[in-house]
Specification:
Blueprint (H helix, E strand, L loop, with lengths): L13 E14 L2 E14 L3 H5 L9 H14 L5 H8 L6 E8 L6 H7 L15 E3 L5 E9 L7 E16 L24 E11 L2 E3 L14 H5 L7 H18 L5 H15 L3 E10 L2 E3 L17 E4 L5 E8 L2
Helix pairs in contact: 2-3, 6-7
This protein binds uric acid.
Length: 327
């Protein structure tokens, strides 16, 4: 018996996976944004591409990706399902699109409602539209206790901070006047998307820890709050709240000239407002969003004010870091 007679193609499906799309719809100063991660798979009369090496029935996965961008530009941003349904009647009988938002993208009103004490952008007409992903950021604290000089001279060094605070703003960010040489291909922009996953640490001035009553039980809880109860002059919870609030407010409100410049302003404010903080370190990946060239459907998506569909670039990303220390 021949090889062919022993088996048959019982099911086939192909397409593009992990098509990441960022979409923005501007209504004046109001920006609706959403980020999708799309799987777009086709089924239908495609058997011969497998069984007879006949490519005439194949819509290239590259084209499927381009169609996905088009659908995202046409559909209501908040409802990826409507995009999937719109795609269905295209050329192939069955299309499966799984789209989900990459994290929880909130518009500014929703963000403020969820975090009333969080960011404030100065009213409905403010230029900055801040989005942050709810609930993913974590507070971190590291404690170094040095008891080598004896139990009466115990010194603690405490560093606290925030990691994974994912933020994005869709206006109020430019990047211009940087070095141009033979290696420069990046265009200057006076309006861009600025997104980063904030990693912040701040160090307190070292302080003396009261000698423990029971020497075997010198336990410092790794939350800043508990530390304040072992005789420190500061309240770790209050500083943590202030640091987060300053970070979000400066990020939202700064007319950013660069990630570097915004970082510096955030750090300066934390030091100015928190007397026990000695130094502040931010590490900010610059998560790039590149406008899709949509000339293939006659749409100008490259002029900054008209760009609605962007590809979020996972890697490489910029990585901007600095420590700002009290004088
Ligand atoms: O804010 C920025 N800082 C940079 O150093 C940089 N480099 C780059 O390519 N884009 C940006 N953006």
């Amino acid at each position: 018996m021949s090889v062919e007679s022993k088996s048959y193609l019982s099911h086939a499906r192909y397409g593009k996976d992990k098509v990441r799309v960022f979409r923005i719809v501007r209504e004046g100063s109001w920006h609706h944004v959403v980020e999708y991660n799309v799987t777009a798979l086709l089924e239908g009369d495609i058997d011969v591409s497998y069984t007879k090496a006949d490519n005439s029935v194949i819509v290239a996965t590259d084209s499927i990706k381009n169609i996905t961008y088009c659908i995202s530009r046409e559909s209501v941003p908040a409802y990826p399902v409507s995009g999937a349904l719109r795609a269905a009647p295209r050329d192939t009988p069955r299309v499966q699109i799984r789209a989900y938002t990459q994290g929880l993208c909130l518009n500014r009103e929703a963000a403020l409602a969820a975090h009333p004490g969080g960011s404030r952008s100065g009213g409905a007409e403010a230029a900055s539209i801040l989005v942050f992903r709810d609930g993913d950021d974590k507070r971190v604290t590291s404690v170094e206790v040095d008891a080598s000089a004896g139990k009466d001279k115990i010194v603690a060094k405490v560093t606290s901070g925030i990691t994974d605070l994912l933020v994005l703003k869709s206006s109020g960010s430019a990047f211009e006047s940087f070095v141009r040489d033979e290696y420069t291909t990046l265009a200057e922009v006076n309006d861009r998307i600025f997104s980063t996953s904030i990693d912040l640490t701040y160090a307190y001035a070292p302080f003396a820890v009261p000698a423990p009553r029971d020497e075997k039980r010198l336990v410092l809880d790794v939350t800043g709050a508990a530390l304040s109860s072992v005789g420190t002059p500061w309240d770790g919870d209050k500083v943590a709240e202030a640091a987060r609030k300053i970070t979000l407010e400066v990020f939202a409100e700064d007319e950013s000239a660069s990630v570097q410049a915004t970082l510096y302003k955030m750090a300066q404010q934390i030091i100015a407002d928190n007397v026990h903080v000695e130094s502040v370190t931010y590490t900010l990946p610059n998560k790039h969003y590149v406008p899709v060239d949509m000339k293939y459907i006659g749409v100008d998506n490259l002029t900054p004010s008209k760009a609605e569909v962007f590809v979020p670039i996972a890697a490489p990303s910029g990585l901007i870091s600095a420590t700002i220390t009290r004088k």
